[in-house]
Amino acid sequence: MDVDQLLQRHDVDTARFEPAPLSPSWREMRDHLALLAGCALCGDTCLSVWVADMGSGPRWVGLCRGHTPGILSELAAPTVLGRTGAVHG
Length: 89
Ligand SMILES: [Zn+2]
Hints:
The protein has 89 residues and is α+β, with helices and mostly antiparallel strands. It has one domain (3-87). The chain has helices spanning 3-9, 26-33, 69-75; strands spanning 46-53, 58-64, 85-87. The chain has a three-stranded antiparallel sheet with strand order 2-1-3, with helices on one face. 28% of the residues are buried. Residues 76-82 have low confidence and may be disordered. The chain binds zinc ion (ZN). Zinc ion (ZN) binds at residues 39, 41-42, 44, 63-64, 66-67.
């Protein structure tokens, strides 16, 4: 599952998040991770930061430890290493 599907499944409207650059650099993503208010799904401390576009343009989306793992396994696959997702620690 990618982050767009995850947000869709939880009925998250990304319009309420801050606009993000379409292709942020690793540094931008790392820096933005520190600014995120909390997980997009539960409000917990963010472990990962993503750029998702649910129809309102690219937005910064943070996910906590509990909501990130399903995505981590995809990130580990060589074919998706170039996707927009950065993980803390
Ligand atoms: Zn969460």
